[in-house]
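Q: Could you fold this chain for me?
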Amino acid sequence: MATFGAAPAGNHNPNKSFEVIQPPSDSVSSLSFSPRANHLVATSWDNQVRCWELTRNGASVTSVPKASISHDQPVLCSAWKDDGTTVFSGGCDKQAKMWSLMSGGQPVTVAMHDAPIKEIAWIPEMNVLVTGSWDKTLKYWDTRQSNPVHTQQLPERCRALTVRHPLMVVATADRHLIVFNLQNPQIEFKRIPSPLKYQTRCVAAFPDQQGFLVGSIEGRVGVHHLDESQSSRNFTFKCHRDTTEIYSVNSLNFHPVHHTFATAGSDGAFNFWDKDSKQRLKVSLSLSLSLSLYIYMCVEGLSLTSIAVSHFFPEYVIRTISWLNDVRSQIDMV
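A: Sure. Below is the predicted structure, expressed as structure tokens.
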């Protein structure tokens, strides 16, 4: 039996990843790669937004802390502007901040809600910021104005959001999935009950905007096509399970070139899948931990993936680590 309060036993880095310098001191809530440079942003429950510059040196990857800003309460989400100059973040202080990272400017509040902001995304095709909140609203913002350009009521609290213009999918509590055509963003295009029986954790739009993935706390992923004539191609599958335990699916991300996708789960593993052939392509070694594990994974560039690992014992955070992986070894599987 493990000693109460003791560090978890086992190999915490079986995949030989690279740990960033000065990682967050509390649980990581989101990760975002810059679309223009080797910069990684992480938000965390210690109220911080941190940025590192990443450099490849042969077979190794090094990280240099570049800058950080603070919120008044835990930060839950982040997004980059498409030009790579600006970071947006939102959290439990009910506000979204715009941080002109490249110019060294001070953060500016650009959005407000009546409850924590769970999701945030920049939509370059519309030049607007979208925020999803636990106040059961979705808001669109012109960052030059103090009031939202549109407020969309949601049936429940926002849990997850994915955008690939013109497709946007919002997952809410009570297993609602609301689909928007951003060419007419003020009207719901379709509302779908989740194909999964339990609470939604994450969603990811297909690269071709023809459908989306949805992951749940029950270790299961749903593949859903929007065109009803393609409904025969919809399916669900189990993942992040062993013979006796079921783990949450915490992240879904498509590879930007091969359009395979990765799932990351509370079992400490990340898996790679091909939805068209319905195959698992590769599975990572699982971190050997006796405590619950939450991993957030980003696949937003050709060079690196980023994984955040947070260990919990009941309500207390034991340790938080941010990992970097060389994606070239993962491309070999395709």
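A (continued): The two ends are 42 Å apart (CA to CA).
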